[in-house]
Amino acid sequence: MTLSRRDFAALSLAAPLAWSLAPPVRALARTPLVIAAGAATGDAPASTRVAYDLAITAGADVIAASVFPTRDGWLVALPGADLAATTDVAARPEFADRRKVRSIDGHDVPGWSVEDFTLAELKALVCVTPGAKRRGPDAGRTILTFEELMATARAGSVRMARVIGVEVRIVEAARWAALDLAVEPRLATAIRTAGYNFPAAAMVVAAEEPDALRTLGELTRVRRAMRLRAADGAGQRSSDGLKAIRGFAEAIAADSALLIDLAQPKTIPPLGLVADAHAAGLTVQAWTAPDAGAVFPPPPFRAGDARRIFAALFAVGCDAVAGDNAALVARGRDDAASRDRG
N or C end of the chain, less CB within 10 A? Predict the structure, then answer.
């Protein structure tokens, strides 16, 4: 049955949005998902409503953001805890005294950090794209709360008449716990309040720290994804490691370099992790959004090769692919589907 936009709006307002959990157990949807990871563009700063709206229109099925606690206990969506990197805080004289030097991973890092600000203070800031000129009105370019992130997905679902999910990532869980701002209980409460506390809900929580996901599993029934990075050890990617992950998560969110061989740009063959993860009962997300200082696509690829890499990730069986450019990821999915049909 095909729903009209009005019918879809009525249903989405009446109940939390959900994906079908049809067999096999790893399936989140009938087709692989496109995840908008921050969705930054030259005109739309990352993790803002305007960026996510553009990504949803371009084909994103999921909007993703890292969440951080404010001084007064709210959760906000940001690319990172350092506000100077993505907001105009450095140009705000009223917040000059909040600049501090913090020790992060053994390095002294000066800047403005989210935990030193209340939600009201953060709402006074405007998000910016580093290196880009500030254009257009500030509306839609303020920092989003978790609740506003969910509302953006709901509004996008109504506008597009299809389910738009949310993926939130817990970063440095131990750091926030040490500051008496633990993210897990706050996030669990927010998920329950939003009505998304069930396995088929259009919601995923990702983290690099297994303990954070275990805690979420004790507090909620939401689906969880273990973040795997290329720089990490290989133990988690072994058969036993994947089985262990399945004990506290339903998915892995792995760097693309762990899933396909990017050293062979002509063929881009699979590396076997997708098949191994599926055998362990895990869904697989491919993450291509680069960390600070990294680039995608990596050498020897050129910028124009991104779509081909996205297609290769879908072709090897990834259940979702995450990238900054949702339109390109969606085109890669279409390319992979066309090859399958051919």
Answer: N
